[in-house]
Design brief:
This protein is an alpha+beta fold. It has a domain of about 50 residues. The protein has four helices and four strands; from the N terminus they run αβαβααββ. The strands form two sheets. A two-stranded parallel sheet has the order 1-2. Strand 3 and strand 4 form a beta hairpin. Helix 1 runs parallel beside helix 2.
């Protein structure tokens, strides 16, 4: 019964022209051989991680923890469409507007039009800092903007 439900859930979320290529999972009982066969028939490659070893998929584990800590732990999600919208907005913020420590602490996708002339820690004359709220003000993205003359 659980196996059929799991296969049906994969049929609902994996479109025919998917950009996904892999399904990574551990040895949980919901991933029986029949589920792996059905997912393979959908065009995905099944990759099994070792049992009770979250380090085997450290990138995914880190993203899940970060998403929870920065987003989902602070929100009350009402229904599926709501969580999809919240996660989509957070992922866009994560990739395009959030500082990353590995970039010291640069932003990954800064448009070249946003790069101001550097002046130490001072804002140049004729510019101001503008904040854009993300997720209803949970986070903010900041940019410099020329002030109207």
């Amino acid at each position: 019964m659980i196996v059929q439900a799991t296969i049906q859930q994969f049929r609902a979320i994996v479109p025919g022209d998917q950009p996904q290529r892999f399904l990574i999972h551990d040895g949980d009982s919901v991933y029986a051989a029949a589920v792996d066969d059905a997912v393979t028939a959908m065009g995905l490659t099944v990759l099994n991680t070792p049992v009770r070893c979250p380090q085997a998929n450290a990138f995914c584990e880190r993203l899940i923890v970060t998403m929870g800590r920065e987003c989902l732990d602070w929100m009350i999600v009402l229904f599926e469409r709501h969580i999809r919208a919240v996660v989509q907005e957070w992922v866009t913020h994560y990739h395009c507007g959030r500082p990353h420590a590995s970039l010291r602490p640069g932003i990954p996708d800064v448009p070249s039009t946003q790069l101001p002339a550097m002046s130490g820690h001072r804002i140049l004359d004729g510019q101001r800092v503008v904040a854009r709220p993300i997720l209803g003000g949970l986070h903010h993205e900041y940019r410099l903007e020329r002030m109207a003359a």
